[in-house]
Amino acid sequence: MQRMTDEQLRMIFAASCIEAAARRKGISPTEMYRRMARIGMIEEYILPYYDLLHTQSREYITDTTLETLHNWEVAGKTMKGDKL
């Protein structure tokens, strides 16, 4: 059996965060991905904090992911850190 690389594990984790947040909000994972990608949340929050986040409960991760999404969207953050 092949072992997954660290990058593969991180991508699987990011996908699970997207799916859990989408399920909680009642939207499709595709729509949740679009929202997160628009503000750079995957590259600037989920992946950089993988080591910390993946040790937490699914409920905590979903709560903090949605809180961060909301805060960044309200602030008008974009992938480059600029305002929308």
Automatic annotation (TrEMBL):
Pfam families in alphabetical order: DUF3791
Stated name of the protein: DUF3791 domain-containing protein
